[in-house]
Amino acid sequence: MIRHIEFTNLCNFRDVGGYAAQGGRTVRWQRLYRADSLGWLAGDDLAAYRALGVRSVIDLRHPFEVKKAGRVPESDCPHYQNLPIEGRRWELTPYNEEVGISRYLADRYLEITEDGIANLRTALETVAAADNAPVVVHCAAGKDRTGVLTALVLSLVGVDEDDIVADYALTGRATERFIADWRRRHPDTPLWPGFGLAPAETMRLFLTDLTARHGSIERYVTQVLQLSPDAVAELRAHLLTEANGAG
To answer: Residue 136: which H helix or E strand, with range?
Structure first.
């Protein structure tokens, strides 16, 4: 199976399947995708997207971002949700070079787990429901907000931390293109700290800190987000293969 799905205008569209999970099981392919902004879909890209048979889109951007950059066409998404999870605007948070970009980004991700509780729960409930699949989770670059939600999903189904970190870091393959596209579209707007960067240490720090705060990622999801046990069970049932690798 192919993890990176090539589009002309999208840089970072990936299948989240294939990772080893709890109990000898594996994350199923073609159930959950992560992406940058679907507002760029057009022409051949739109045809390639339609071929995936996506049923649900979780758009984690602010409404003003959706209005400015567009969204997946209504005719191509039976179930669309705009669920912004960023509370404190990152470009307003001073960056300290002594702290470093990984620590800076990890702290922003921790803020999401504090500020985006209601919409994170709704997003996980959407991913958990088998009838909603295939699901695409996306934000602007498919890195930060998308990275947080994807990490929660993969952790809940028992994917090893090293694989969660590696999945996050795959965005680094698109960094050069992200920066070039941004400068082309916004020639007079400076890049904010960490733009397009996905150092593995960022996700490692985030997972470590979230676990230290709550005891485990699952405890955060069930006690803070209050995702129900039934939803957690359904998530695992439809996202994972059987123990023998079938289905």
So the answer is: strand 135-138
How many Å apart are CA 71 and CA 188, to the nearest integer?
A: 24
Strand (E) or helix (H) holding 43: none
Closest CA to 139 of 52, 6, 39: 39
Contact 96, 193 (CB under 8 A): no
Is 134 within 8 Å of 54 (Cβ atoms)?
A: yes
Structure-block tokens of residue 41? 């879909």
pLDDT in tens, the chain (247 residues): 789 999 999 999 999 999 999 899 999 999 999 999 999 999 999 999 999 999 999 999 999 999 999 999 988 888 999 999 999 877 667 777 788 999 999 999 999 999 999 999 999 999 999 999 999 999 999 999 999 999 999 999 999 999 999 999 999 998 888 888 878 887 888 777 777 889 999 999 999 999 999 999 999 999 999 999 999 999 999 999 987 655 5
CA distance 150 to 58: 11
pTM over 0.90: yes
Is the preceding omega at residue 134 within 30 degrees of 0, hence cis? yes
